[in-house]
C-alpha cells in the first residue's frame, strides 16, 4: 500500500526523527553489527542512522518516489521492494527495523520474512510516534483535525499507531516496550508541512480537489508564535528472533 509517493518531499523534510536514546536501546540488544534491514524505509531517515553502526544496511520501500529523497551512503543499499516479498537470503540480518510503517503491512506474511531473514538471536525493532502536543490550545485543534482527516481514511491502520503499536499482532519473544519523546521548535510553516505529509490529507485532496490544511493553518496562525515547542511521543517494541537455547 503506497500512500506516500505524492508527498515524498514533504515527508523527507517535515517528519520527526528518532531520539538517540531509542537507538542506544536497540543497539544494546544487538549481538553483532554486520547487516541491518530497515523495512518501509521511506526517505531513509532511520537507515542513515543505522549506517553509522552497521557494516551494511539494506533499506526497502515500495515507493520509488520516496527512495529518491533518501540520503545516499556508501554502506546503504536502497531497494524498491514490498515488506512481504523481499529479495534477501535467509539468515542475513542482525537487526530488522520498521519505523512508522508496520501498520500498513500484511502482518502474517511480513513476519514470516522477519523470521526467515533474521540471524539466530537477531533483533526486531518496531518504532512509531504518536500525535504531537504543544504548550498551547493548539494541541486540541490539531488533534481534532487529525481525527477528522483519519476518520474517513485509513482508520484501522491508524488505530494501531494511536495505541502505540501495543495492539498489533506480535508473536515473538518480546524484549520490552519503551517510550521516548522527540521535541522541536516549529514555526507555522513547519506545522503546515507536517500536516500536508499526512496520508489522509493527500487522500482528501485527491477526492475533494482542495487542501484541507489551508483553513486549519489560517486558524492556528493567529496565535502561533514565531516558534513554538512541539513534542511527539515515540515508542519502541523490541523482540528477539530465532533465539538460541541460551537466550
UniProtKB/TrEMBL annotation:
Protein keywords: Methyltransferase, Transferase
Glycosyltransferase keyword on record: no
EC numbers on record: 2.1.1.-
GO biological process, one term: methylation
A Pfam short name: Methyltransf_11
Superkingdom assignment: Bacteria
GO molecular function, one term: methyltransferase activity
Domain Methyltransferase type, residue spans: 38-125
Keyword Metal-binding: no
UniProt-listed InterPro entries: Diverse_substrate_MTase (IPR051052), Methyltransf_11 (IPR013216), SAM-dependent_MTases_sf (IPR029063)
Family statement drawn from the similarity comment of this UniProt entry: Belongs to the methyltransferase superfamily.
Protein name per its UniProtKB record: Class I SAM-dependent methyltransferase
Taxonomic lineage from the root: Bacteria, Pseudomonadati, Bacteroidota, Flavobacteriia, Flavobacteriales
